[in-house]
User: What shape does this take?
Amino acid sequence: MASIFSKIIAGEIPGDIVYRDELVTAFRDINPQAPTHILIVPNKEIPTVNEVTEADEAALGRLIVAAKKIAEQEGIAENGYRLIVNCGKHGHQDVFHIHMHLVGGRPLGPMLYR
Ligand code: AMP
Assistant: This one.
């Protein structure tokens, strides 16, 4: 079954998409933890970092290239931001389609806790 993020990427459910290319899609988190909270997601559904293979290197590298562009777009590049990838139960991963959180727009402190 397609993940909720695959459905957003496919346009089957709504998402506030801020960036899209042939490898990744980015949209605003539905429950933002900071003024800017965007999820950057490989278009290919990979459940967790544990399932990553070398064939995924281009898409996973693109997550960071996209993060840089989106941070500039959002006006938070100069002050900085945090990129987070959660994995599995102890990593507090809720959606099993790899995603990178781009969080910024305020000082974040040493760590984010939820
Ligand atoms: P994680 O705990 O790393 O798996 O993060 C999952 C994130 O997905 C959370 O920050 C949720 O707020 C966010 N999220 C869940 N459903 C949606 C949705 N339909 N649209 C946008 N963000 C979502």
Summary: The longest helix spans residues 57-74. The CA atoms of residues 51 and 98 lie 10 Å apart. Residues 4-96 form a domain with the HIT family, subunit A fold (CATH 3.30.428.10). The chain has one domain: 4-96.
